[in-house]
Amino acid sequence: MNRQNATLILALGIGLVAFMWPVFLADQSAMSPAQAPLVFALVLPLLLAVVLAELTSGGLDAKALAMLGVLAAIGTVLRPLSAGTAGFDLIFFLFILAGRVYGANFGFALGAITLFTSALLTGGVGPWLPYQMLASGAVGAFAGWLPRARGKAELAILAGYGVVAGFAFGWLMDLVFWPYSLGAQTELSYDPSLGVLSNLQRFVLFNLATSMGWNLGRAVANAALVLIVGTPLLRMLRRAARRPSFIIEPVA
Question: Among 5, 24, 108, 244, which residue's CB has the most CB atoms within a 10 Å radius?
Answer without folding.
Answer: 108
